[in-house]
TrEMBL record:
Name assigned to this protein: Atypical chemokine receptor 2
Keyword list, A-Z: Cell membrane, Disulfide bond, Endosome, G-protein coupled receptor, Glycoprotein, Inflammatory response, Membrane, Phosphoprotein, Receptor, Transducer, Transmembrane, Transmembrane helix
Domain G-protein coupled receptors family 1 profile: 67-316
Organism: Nannospalax galili (Northern Israeli blind subterranean mole rat)
Coiled-coil regions listed: none
Subcellular location: Cell membrane; Early endosome; Recycling endosome
GO terms for MF: C-C chemokine binding; C-C chemokine receptor activity; receptor decoy activity
GO biological process: calcium-mediated signaling; cell chemotaxis; immune response; inflammatory response; positive regulation of cytosolic calcium ion concentration
Protein origin, superkingdom: Eukaryota
GO cellular component, one term: nuclear membrane
PROSITE patterns hit by this protein: G_PROTEIN_RECEP_F1_2
PANTHER family per UniProt: ATYPICAL CHEMOKINE RECEPTOR 2 (PTHR10489:SF942), CELL ADHESION MOLECULE (PTHR10489)
């Protein structure tokens, strides 16, 4: 029975086998010592995936392409002097765009079979993995930057330089590229007995070991470490907000909570399902019915996690009052409205008296507090040196 490939199968190393030795499930498991699993058929799971996944991948492609293109255009066109948070946001938008570009390929592959050839098989798989991880890493960079900007504005201001931040950006891309090496090496096109072509990683006789390793890597680097870092950063930021009690404190706390909750809700179900699949591969528990149920769950939770490229950039972008102002300028220009001279080109540090009043009254985001923390540390340093 032929199998259909999916991004999940490629990047968690849930590989498919064209031989009769392995199971015929949609997500292939190497239960070679258990006859029950060898006889466990996944026809209904495959039929469900061939309808559900292409629809979801297409929706992710449309929403992710539109949202991230808008974000990219606004950042490139309106923000002439970008701070590092906005540089990370720019890279996040690029990463998400490259990620969603792979969705139509997987939609066609799941609904029919891989018709794009061997070269695109490797390229699309590698692009998927690189941008899967780089997107999460850039979110962590934004959280770290905001933490340093607010909590350690004075002590770390000289350490938080543009050159170091750009170096961190390059390190993110290099790390994501290194993680994608298994895709470059092992992913290839395979022909099934029915004459259908599928794109997936073939690890030979070490398939189960690779599956467990890549799932463990994905749960640590793609969920657990970023989540723990986010909780630490925003709990410290929350303590600063409560202590200083700036105007708009409540909204800033709600933004921080929303970012943490959104990340958890999108990624925890997927990571938990991968963990349960690993236990199933190790035969810690399970039977055919549980295996089928986890297959359904894996498809649904994977799709939910993929929506991070649609909503996460929007959450981070609209947590910044600066970005909302740039977006208004951009939309006004697109709609043909005339702005006051110099509105779009005005540096971020120069505000009119009315905008100063608005910023003082809003304090609507953690970015505003970070600006004031940084300015305060600089002023204090000037006084000490005088």
């Amino acid at each position: 029975m032929s199998s259909t490939a999916s991004p999940l199968a490629l990047n968690t190393s849930t590989t498919h086998s064209a031989t009769s030795e392995n199971s015929s499930s949609f997500y292939d498991y190497d239960y070679l010592d258990d006859v029950t699993f060898l006889l466990c058929r996944k026809d209904e799971v495959m039929s469900f995936g061939q309808v559900f996944l292409p629809v979801i991948y297409s929706l992710i492609f449309v929403l992710g392409l539109g949202g991230n293109l808008l974000l990219l255009v606004v950042l490139l066109r309106c923000v002439l002097r970008r701070r590092m948070t906005e540089v990370y946001l720019l890279n996040l938008a690029i990463s998400n765009l490259l990620f969603v570009v792979t969705m139509p390929f997987w939609a066609v592959s799941v609904a029919w079979h891989w018709v794009f050839g061997s070269f695109l098989c490797k390229v699309v798989s590698t692009l998927y993995t690189i941008n899967f991880y780089s997107g999460i890493f850039f979110i962590s960079c934004m959280n770290l930057d905001k933490y340093l900007e607010i909590v350690h504005a004075q002590s770390f201001h000289r350490l938080r330089t543009r050159s170091r931040s750009l170096l961190l950006t390059a390190l993110v891309w290099v790390t994501a590229l290194a993680i994608s090496i298994p895709d470059m090496v092992f992913v290839q096109v395979h022909e099934s007995p029915r004459g259908m072509w599928h794109c997936y990683a073939d690890f030979g006789g070490h398939g189960t070991v690779w599956k467990l390793y890549l799932r463990f890597q994905q749960n640590l680097l793609g969920f657990l470490f970023p989540l723990l870092a986010m909780i630490f950063f925003y709990s410290r930021i929350g303590c600063i907000l409560v202590r200083l009690r700036p105007p708009g404190q409540g909204r800033a706390l709600r933004i921080a909570a929303a970012l943490v909750v959104a990340f958890f809700l999108l990624w925890f179900p997927y990571s938990l399902t991968l963990f349960l699949h690993s236990l199933l591969d190790l035969q810690v528990f399970g039977n055919c019915k549980i295996s089928q149920s986890l297959d359904y769950t894996l498809q649904v939770t994977e799709s939910l996690a993929f929506f991070h490229c649609c909503c996460t950039p929007i959450l981070y972008a609209f947590s910044s009052r600066r970005f909302r102002q740039y977006l208004k300028v951009f939309l006004a220009a697109v709609l043909g409205q005339h702005q006051a001279p110099g509105t779009a080109q005005a540096p971020a540090s120069s505000y009119s008296e009315s905008s100063r009043f608005t910023a003082q009254e809003e304090m609507a985001s953690m970015n505003d507090l970070g600006e004031r923390q940084a300015d305060g540390s600089l002023n204090k340093g000037d006084m000490e040196n005088s």
